[in-house]
Amino acid sequence: MESAGKPTAGNAPRRALLIFPMAALLNSFSMTALLLVFGVAGHSEIAANIGLVQGATLALFYAFSANARNLILADGSGSAATRLLRTRLWLLVPLSATAYVLSVGVGDASAALAVVLILRRASEWFGEIGLARHEQKHRFAIPGQTIMAESGAFMLCLLPLVLDWSLALCALPWALAPLLATRQAQLSLSKDGERFSLKTLLPHFGSTAIIGTSVYVFRISIVLLAGKAAAGDLFTAFAIGGLIPTIYGQALAPTLAHRYGSNKLPKWLLLVPTTMLLAGLGLSAVAWMQPAWLNGMGRAPLFWITVGLSIAGGALMSVAAAIRTRLIQQAGGDDVFGPDLLANVLIATCVPFLFYVLGPGALAGLYGLSGCLSLAFLAGVGLRQRSASLTQSRIVPWCIAFLLLVPVFVQIKGGLFRDPAFVFDAGGSILKLPLPLSILALFSGIALLGKYTAARTSMAVLFFTALLFVTTSLTVAQGNPAQQGAKLILLAQFLLPMFGLVLGQMFGACTPATVFERTALWVLLLILPAQLLATWLQGYTLLHPKVFFFSIYQHLQYVPMVIIALLMMTSQSLWGASLKYRVGLAILLPVAMVYVVASLSWGAVLGTAVCLLCFALTHLRRVRIGRRAGVAMGLAAVVAVAYIALSETGVLSRSLSDENGPRDTLQWHNKLAPYLERAETTSPAAGATRMTHWRFYAAGIVETPRAFLLGHATPPDRVLHPSAHNYWLDALYNFGFIAMLPLIVLLLGTLGWLWRQRSAVWDSPVLLGTAMAALYLLLFENMLKVGMRQPYPGIITFFIWGLLISRLKHPVVDPKKPMATQA
Predict the structure, then answer these.
(1) Are 272 and 244 in contact (CB under 8 A)?
(2) What is the CA radius of gyration of the chain?
(3) In sequence order, what are the beta bridge partners of 416?
(4) SS3 at position 667
(5) How is residue 666 annotated by DSSP?
(6) CB neighbourhood size of 529 (10 A)
(7) What average pLDDT does range 393-414 have in this prediction?
């Protein structure tokens, strides 16, 4: 049913479906059309300049547009237009000045052209409000006149193609044309009767800010990596592919959603994206397999491959635009913030990864990838709203948690990681770098759960961290493309694990309290015995990476810290749950003790000691389960001591290995002698080396005020300083205090929540276990290592952090938790 008072599609004037979308299209799409015309005409440098200025203005003006047209159409009082007009007048001068700096100062665009294009964007900003008010009141005269003026002014912009005239001068009338739409729009700056507050606009500002900022980062990254000429061709191809989704998303979709309300859209509209998808893939296939067929088109085959993939991506983007518009107009738009943030931040940070991993040609698929990401995240929201049973099902959370935790790795070039080397060296090639299944679980989990409103804290931190990382990286590089490109790669390495923060907070809000801990218990019972058995069968006492048919990457450096964090969570949360979990933990504890000793990780040993101490303090005081807890702890301690004794004396080595040789070659201290000389340990011998690195990084951080605030243009020489041995020092050195401020504030806020809720934390084993694991990873392990920038340990660390935030802010009670609470 449609809302009361809203005219149906049947009695709506036919011209309303043409005039208003056409006026909105010319208002918002003209700059893209200008880029497209000059790009297709072969003026790649001009196209690149237009693309840079457009990206900068999108990062600012569009960032503060707050989905204006949808909001005005959905608001019958007219107060939305008034609030938006006043807000935009306040922001006009600072945004224009900043756009000029980003375009000319950072992007090295033409100054005169930048001024005209910024003027055009400012005119579009106010013209959008006027056109939306006319559409809301069903007035056709002014939008029709605006269409005529926009069309004529745009033709003047094409004169430089045939005459030796300045584009900036010819484009001046076109830059002012959108202001005609504000005539008779009944816009007022008065606050009388205003019901639309600035607080109501904030989620929409966040959504458009993400899109705008990411577009600028996306484009400046391409220019820095590929060069202006290649970037101009890419921007042109992307514009061709984005033609239909731009027309639909910015012009037609709001009108259709306004007219049809909650009713289904006409089925014939599906023919458009279907045709685009088939045509785009077909064009790419022809350009790839039969490039000679396109020789007469005047462009290289790669250009047409890019166009084809962009058209296919445009099909997906059109469907995503339909979902997004309906979410804004019918559900208030709160849920578009999350999908917009994740899709756009991810695509912006993927640029350097694709460039250096798959080569410059991989940039051809960026728009297609963007369409896939946008549709996946927005479809997750729609699916969750239609079927709440998806997130309430046990299967989805269990699958997400299992894939997140299981230490199985794959290589882009090589498939399943099965290398038996104790220290695997990828040789600097990302194609050979083992990537965990956690990455798949991370993004598929976010898309499937789709509860973005529950993860606003982590999404805000992720957005501002990404924004500040990019800003400081581009600032300190001072226009040096090589340095800027290197910083963007390092930025992607730091940002990827941070998405775990969003998944953790979302997971905590969508699932019962101990689903993650129960899954972790079964993963540990599966992996730890298997790895120990595989180690012994191969004749080793020091933990071996090969586990029968797969290998665990960084099994001595970072994986043990994850295992101990999971042990803290499972032992605290599940010992009092039921008999089957106590049996599982009774088996796991001694196995985990052997694993820790076999991993030769002193950090894991200390973490285990803290785990057992808190386990004793929590459970030994409970009469019904205390005796069993004491027996389990005693058994674990005996097994650990026995394994140490057998290993140190060489008895275990001789019994496991048939090698002939002196006794000391069979002891696990000597099996990895070359590696142990440079291993990350806390032994006194290596302590001086670690302290040397700490002093170097700390001195670099406070070297100058600029270095402290913005970081350094290049990382240290890896030969002299291969690692900071401290995540926080590493991040501060490379990106500066300003970029790290959101994470530091979140860390301090988390500590503050823990302190204020200390009584509740101590009384809740689930909350206590989560807090122990998070603090162990954040304030101990990552003070000694850089695990939070590694995919597997980093994703899990941020996930547990997000889970802790969710449980502190919104405690979840597991309905199946028969905890024994008798003291």
Answers:
(1) yes
(2) 29
(3) 410
(4) coil
(5) G
(6) 15
(7) 87
C-beta of residue 26 within 8 angstroms of C-beta of residue 69: no
CA neighbor of 208 nearest in space, from 32, 28, 340: 340
More confident residue, 768 or 577: 768
* CA 388 – CA 585 distance, rounded (Å): 33
Question: Model pTM?
Answer: 0.75
CA distance 177 to 131: 13
Q: What is the DSSP letter of 194?
A: -
Sign of CA dihedral 669, 675, 676, 682: negative
The sign one gets for the Cα dihedral 332, 334, 338, 341 is positive
* Contacts for 462 with CB less than 8 Å, ≥ 6 apart: 341, 345, 495, 498, 499, 501, 502
**Beta-carbon contacts of residue 321 (< 8 Å; ≥ 6 apart):** 245, 248, 249, 253
Single out the residue of 77, 94, 91 nearest to residue 191, CA to CA: 77
For residue 290, the tally of other CB atoms under 10 A from its CB is 10
DSSP helix/strand/coil, 547: strand
Cα separation, 108 vs 484, whole angstroms = 14
Region at 560 (left for phi over 0; alpha for psi -120 to 50; beta for the rest) = alpha
The identity of residue 645, as a single letter, is A
Instruction: Note whether 45 and 235 are within 8 A (CB).
Output: no
Q: Which two tokens stand for residue 180?
A: 């005609």
In 81-161, the DSSP E strands lie at none
How many residues are present in the chain?
823
H/E/C letters for each residue in 583-638? HHHHHHHHHHHHHHHHHCCHHHHHHHHHHHHHHHHHHCCCHHHHHHHHHHHHHHHH
Look at residue 342 and tell me whether its pLDDT is greater than 90: no
From the centroid of its chain, how far is CA 471?
A: 17
DSSP category for residue 719: T
- Residue 770 pLDDT level (bands cut at 50, 70, 90): very high
pLDDT for residue 144 is more than 90:
no
Burial track 588-623 (b if 16+ CB lie within 10 A, e otherwise): bbbbbbbbbbbbbbbbbbbbbeebbebbeebbeebe
Q: Any residues with CB less than 8 A from the CB of 580 and at least 6 apart, and which?
A: none
CA distance 512 to 504: 13
Tell me what the mean pLDDT of segment 433-461 comes to. 86
| Cα–Cα dist 355/344, whole Å | 17
565-574 pLDDT, tens digit each: 999 999 888 8
579 sits in the region (left: phi over 0; alpha: psi -120 to 50; else beta) called alpha
Calpha distance 245→260 (Å, rounded): 19
Structure tokens at 421: 């080397």
Which one-letter DSSP state was computed for residue 703?
A: S
The conformation of residue 433, written as its DSSP 8-state character, comes to: S
Any idea what the Cα angle at residue 170 is, between residues 165 and 173, rounded to 5°?
170
Distance separating alpha carbons of residues 237 and 757, to the nearest angstrom:
54
Mean pLDDT is highest, among 85-94, 182-191, 781-790, for 781-790
CA distance 506 to 626: 34
pLDDT of residue 41: 84
Tokens of 360: 């410059």
pLDDT at 393: 63
The contacts of residue 178 (CB under 8 Å, 6+ apart) are 27, 120, 123, 124, 126, 127, 128, 146, 150
Taking residue 542's Cβ as centre, other Cβ atoms within 10 Å add up to 21
Q: Give the residue carrying structure tokens 């000391």.
A: 664
- What is the rounded CA–CA span in Å between residue 306 and residue 313? 10
DSSP 3-state assignment of 526?
A: helix
The answer to whether residues 200 and 42 touch, using CB atoms and an 8 Å cutoff, is no
Collapse the DSSP code of 550 into the 3-class scheme (helix H, G, I; strand E, B; otherwise coil) and give the result: strand
* ∠ Cα 341 344 347 (to 5°): 140
| Distance (Å, whole) CA 307 – CA 244 | 13
- DSSP state, residue 435: E
